[in-house]
Amino acid sequence: MDTELKCLVQQVHHQLLKNSYQLYTCIISCVMQTDFTKDMLKRINKLPHELVNEIYNYLPKTTLVWLTYDDYCKYHSVIYDSLRMDQESYTRYLLRHDFDLPFSLHLRENFRQWLAFKKYSYKKKIFKDYFTFIWEFSKECQATKCKNLMAELLV
Fold first, then answer.
1. How far is CA 114 from the centre of its chain?
2. Helices 20-32 and 49-58: angle between axes, nearest 10 degrees
3. In a domain, 47, yes or no
């Protein structure tokens, strides 16, 4: 274990003996001294399991969302909340880039609503419903992974 990591472990161990607020302050100050990168995550994962759990409890959802697949599924709504675009723009963004994981969650959450959204217009074209629009938009963008997700849902 390198000296910087030993220092971090000692600080966190010391703070565990005190109250939670002090632990939170210690973690934040240690994290803020360097960029929160893959390297930092690797270092955190080398810590004892009890400390990792304590650190994990204090990470904001905006950080947790990127750590594991399960966390992404649990906290993905914070991404949408932090974006400065409406739901329709977000949907088109996902399709343009063929981002199948976020689109699959977005699709599951909004499928019924999209079918109920009748007569959607986009670029002077009128579509039967919003789902028909995103189906056509996915073809236009060549978003094959997202289009396959929609096709699976229709079967």
1. 22
2. 90
3. yes
C-alpha distances (whole Å) from 73 to each of 22, 61, 67, 82, 105 are 30, 12, 11, 16, 7
Q: Which residues contact 128 (CB under 8 A, 6 or more apart)?
A: 118, 119
Indicate the number of domains in the chain: 2
pTM recorded for the entire structure: 0.61
Q: Domain range for residue 114?
A: 82-154
Residue 124 lies in a domain: yes
**pLDDT tens digit sequence for 98-115:** 988 888 888 888 888 888
The separation between CA 3 and the C-alpha centre of its own chain, rounded to angstroms, equals 33
Are 65 and 75 spatial neighbours (Cβ–Cβ below 8 Å)? Answer: yes
